[in-house]
Amino acid sequence: MLAIKNVAIKGISCVVPTTKINNVDLSQVYGDKETLKLISSIGVESRYVVDETTTSADLCLQAARQLLLNLKWDVQDIGALIFVSQTPDYQLPATACILQHKLGLPETVMAFDINLGCSGYVYGLNVAASLVNSGIKKVLLLVGDTISKIVKPGDRSTELLFGDAGSATALQYEDNKLLQFELGSNGSGWENIVARNQISSDVNRGANNAFLEMNGGEVFTFTLKTVPALVNKFLQELSLSSSDIDACIYHQANHFMLKHLAKKSNFLSEQVAISINEYGNTSCASIPVTLCARKRENYKNTLLIGFGVGLSWGAVMCDLSESILLPVEVLINDN
After folding, report:
1. Which of 23, 281, 284, 292 is catalytic?
2. Which of 35, 49, 163, 300 has the smallest C-beta neighbourhood within 10 Å, fewest atoms?
3. pLDDT band at 211 (very low <50, low <70, confident <90, very high)
4. CB 324 within 8 A of CB 12
5. Catalytic residue among 14, 248, 251, 254
């Protein structure tokens, strides 16, 4: 377990694209009962997807602007910007550098990308908190994906599941605050969620040039084997039980899986927030989206759990009781 002291999560904001897709309507395109059963199992009733020109950075940019405005942060005080995504705007340069410029952050800002998906938010929090702990007083963590761009049309295992979203999280030095992490990876299962086969595209903007492939059965097996053991061990190390947790936010992989995970760790349904029904699986942004979409009165003992592509996983215990959690917004700005 990794404990990082004197770091507070001051606020979180999220943005989704303008286009909303109703999966039940889409099921009529396939015209079979199996599609409706699949929709019921994964639990995705609707999701938001980008057009060809909107990028992950566009979504994160609006989220960052809204968060900075609400926190009344002076951009000159920000010392680092981290962008977490598996669908960056370009192969190079780092999208974080582009966002540093668009946000008007000073040239003294450290800006870099992290290539992670489902566990990316927890990993990003760990890196951002480490920077704060090292002396950088304020850090902006931008996490987002546009997975719909790499979903192969007609592949129901992915087409009905994934949505797009961007988020911004502000971390700041604060005495007597504590973030506790448990992180891990097992690259032997890397082929179970992969984008490797080149696809042609007439769109010049973007670095996404391969369709997503997912072995759902293997991913499900990995998740049920790894995540409950991670959570139960983590709680034991923290000297906590499941009843001590005010809110448990899992990566929104699919609804059927989330119910099994909660059951194996003895969480009640009211402890586990769900947003996949409305937003789909938004990859690395699914945890902040769920926090903002399903805001609760008590977020003191909050457990965030990411898992998936890599294969990798992570959990963090944090106190969000004083954090600003803004409602999820639809993209409205011309970035």
Report:
1. 281
2. 300
3. confident
4. yes
5. 251
**Among candidate residues 223, 2, 194, the one with its CA nearest the CA of residue 117:** 194
Going by C-beta distance under 8 Å and a sequence separation of 6 or more, which residues neighbour residue 239?
none
Tokens (6 digits) for 335:
């970035």
pTM, 2 dp: 0.94
Residue 323: which of 182, 142, 169 has the closest Cα? Answer: 169
pLDDT at 202: 56
Q: Could you give the domains of the chain?
A: 1-335 (3.40.47.10)
Catalytic annotation on 70? no
89 contacts 206 by C-beta, under 8 angstroms: yes
Q: Residue 60 catalytic?
A: no
Q: Which of 14, 23, 60, 118 is catalytic?
A: 118
Is pLDDT at 204 greater than 80 in this prediction? no
Query: Does 118 participate in catalysis according to the annotation?
Result: yes
Distance CA 167, CA 145 (A): 9
Cα torsion for 195, 200, 201, 204, to the nearest 10°?
A: 90
Rounded to 5 degrees, φ, ψ at 314 are: -165, 150
Residue 296's pLDDT band, with cuts at 50, 70 and 90, is: confident
